[in-house]
Amino acid sequence: MSIDLLWEKYITLRDPEARQKIILLHLPLVKHLAGRVAVKLPSFILREDLESYGVIGLMEALDKYDPAMGHSFDSYAYHRIRGAMLDEVRRQNWLPRTAWQKNQLLKNTRERLEREQGEVITNEVLAKEMGIPVEEVRQLIFNANKMYIQSLDEEVAGHDGSQMSKLELLEDTNSPDPLSIVEEKESKRLLAEAIETLSEREKLILALYYSEGLTLKEIGQVLEVSESRVCQLHSQVMKRLKKTLESMLNS
């Protein structure tokens, strides 16, 4: 089907299939504009993201285009697509305009000097070339690093060579760590076994102190001994438990 027939079908019937085909035909325009816009932007804004914003602009242009305006769709879409890209870039960029311009100057200066000298450029050289203090160069670099945004959908190589997204590598702090659960269960099992080696009097002291929450004075009243004696017994029990656990772990 020719492009004219597609337009006729879309304009008269708002046919979704014709709309999709028109969008596909104009994707090269989106890619072309993304390439031109990306040249003037810092590296943290990916060309793929620009293309995504551009496609949104293309669809909006298609929905709002009126042939009666007397403009060709390509001309109308050009400005809509480019505008959508730049609008999204502005939303992502929280730096003041002057700071943005300085970062651009820093980026361009570094790239030019690296091409000319064929080596990594130091902050001191950058400062001299730009006519600003070294500390200001460091601050500009710090601000640029804070702006760096990564896509969590970006794939990276895992330890075994397989590909996975960065999102899969992020730790879920709300999810329990299986290894910690196993270690906790194992620790409880060993502690229970160690407690079983104690005498009934020693088990009672631990139960009253840790389970029932009694004070040393209250435990002394239960056992009919002084508070200082309970403190001494508790200390002895803890030392014995520690020794038993160490023996279990080393066996």
From TrEMBL:
One of its GO terms (molecular function) is DNA-directed RNA polymerase activity. Pfam families: Sigma70_r2, Sigma70_r3, Sigma70_r4. Keywords: DNA-binding, Sigma factor, Transcription, Transcription regulation. InterPro entries: RNA_pol_sigma-70_dom, RNA_pol_sigma70, RNA_pol_sigma70_r2, RNA_pol_sigma70_r3, RNA_pol_sigma70_r4, RNA_pol_sigma_FliA_WhiG, RNA_pol_sigma_r2, RNA_pol_sigma_r3/r4-like. Signal peptide: none annotated. GO terms for biological process: DNA-templated transcription initiation. Residues 215-241 form the RNA polymerase sigma-70 domain. This is RNA polymerase, sigma 28 subunit, SigD/FliA/WhiG. It comes from Desulforamulus reducens (strain ATCC BAA-1160 / DSM 100696 / MI-1) (Desulfotomaculum reducens).
